[in-house]
Amino acid sequence: MKIEQRITVDFSYDIYFTRDVFGPENPILQNIFGHGKPRILVFLDSGVAAAWPGMEHRIGEWFDAHPQSGEMVSPVIIVPGGEQCKNDFEYLKVIARNMRITKLDRHSYVLIVGGGAVLDAVGFIASITHRGIRHIRIPTTVLSQNDSGVGVKNGVNLFDAKNYFGTFSPAYGVVNDLNFLRTLKLRDWRAGISEAFKVAIIKDRSFLLELVNKAKKLSERNEGAMEILIRRCAQLYRKKLPLDFKQLI
Ligand SMILES: NC(=O)c1ccc[n+]([C@@H]2O[C@H](COP(=O)([O-])OP(=O)(O)OC[C@H]3O[C@@H](n4cnc5c(N)ncnc54)[C@H](O)[C@@H]3O)[C@@H](O)[C@H]2O)c1
User: Fold this and answer.
1) Which residue from 14, 49, 115, 215 could staple onto 141, CB 3.0 to 4.6 Å apart?
2) Ligand 1 center to residue 141 CA distance, Å?
3) Residue 8 located in a structural domain
């Protein structure tokens, strides 16, 4: 006897575009969390915490002003920003331990505010804890807003191999807040633009021409041009590659 098991996994999630997501009047997180008063644990990239003094308190104040959206089960936890958090298992253990001691379960949420590395590391731990705690991403770099944060992958580095351990685990929701990009170092601002060129070359000729026309504005940190770039990349992320590559020429 043989039984064929077939499991189809279908994910969908919303990507919001806003400014000042933790402004007291901003309703986006409330839309995502609903009114079930879930337990929420917040992780914040240390680079963001340094560039935005008081951000951890501002996050706490947002939840104080929206008690129906959920309960912050701990003060905000700061995670070392950049690749270090993906390289060092001591940091990963701290992330995991905090999920344990705050008694997160599968009804809870992890809210991650940071660059691609912190999103990858905390998202990875969330995705393997209790076989998956829902996580919400607030990406704070250009690359994470136009690529890694809006996608489905998590990962950490091991044995000198990048993303050696990782999962496919989409976020429950993503909030791109353009204001965060103002404090990026020039290198990180430009790194995300190069990703947009890559996506445009592969998927969308007219977008590529637009990027070429706006190259100067983008490199001079024009926010309007950047906003369009990020939205377009997020839209293209879900678009399949054209079967006929001649379309690109
Ligand atoms: N999961 C995926 O699909 C995917 C795709 C592409 C890349 N990645 C991963 O993303 C990582 C790179 O991410 P990244 O380019 O976002 O950089 P990053 O996360 O390494 O951050 C770069 C630096 O900027 C700081 N920072 C973050 N936001 C800031 C802000 N708003 N203001 C000031 N400083 C800020 C960080 O603390 C860090 O020091 C790599 O680990 C890469 O493997 C993942």
Assistant:
1) 115
2) 6
3) no
